[in-house]
Amino acid sequence: MVTSSIMSVASSSAATSSSTALASSYRIKFKLPEFLKLIGEANPPRIYKVSDFYYFAFDGFIMYCSECQDDDLMGFTIFKAKEFSNVQWQKT
Asked: Which pTM value belongs to this model?
């Protein structure tokens, strides 16, 4: 009985992890006003910047905008990254 409960929890966790990994590869692009409104609601702990694009994760998706400036995001931590990829990393 305990074993079946543990197996049920484990398979449920695996399914959740699998669907989260799949969902997190999706990106949603916003115009500046909507992006700023979403940032206000999501209150992300960090925002990433690659070239002219600003990104953050929310609700299992990558939210991004190309119309932002650093000044638009005062009060938020911005990490300047070298590149962004939606391809899953694999050890070679």
From this structure: 0.66
Q: For residue range 9-20, what is the model confidence (pLDDT) as tens digits?
A: 444 444 444 444
Termini Cα distance of the chain = 42
3-class state of residue 22 by DSSP: helix
23-80, CATH topology level: 3.30.720
> Where do the structural domains in the chain lie, given as residue ranges?
23-80
DSSP count for the chain of H helices, then E strands: 2, 5
With pLDDT > 70 as the criterion, what percentage of the chain qualifies? Answer: 70
| Cα distance between residue 15 and residue 82, in whole Å | 32
Residue with tokens 């938020």: 76
What's the DSSP call for residue 56? E
Q: Are 73 and 39 in contact (CB under 8 A)?
A: yes
> Token pair of 72, please?
């638009």
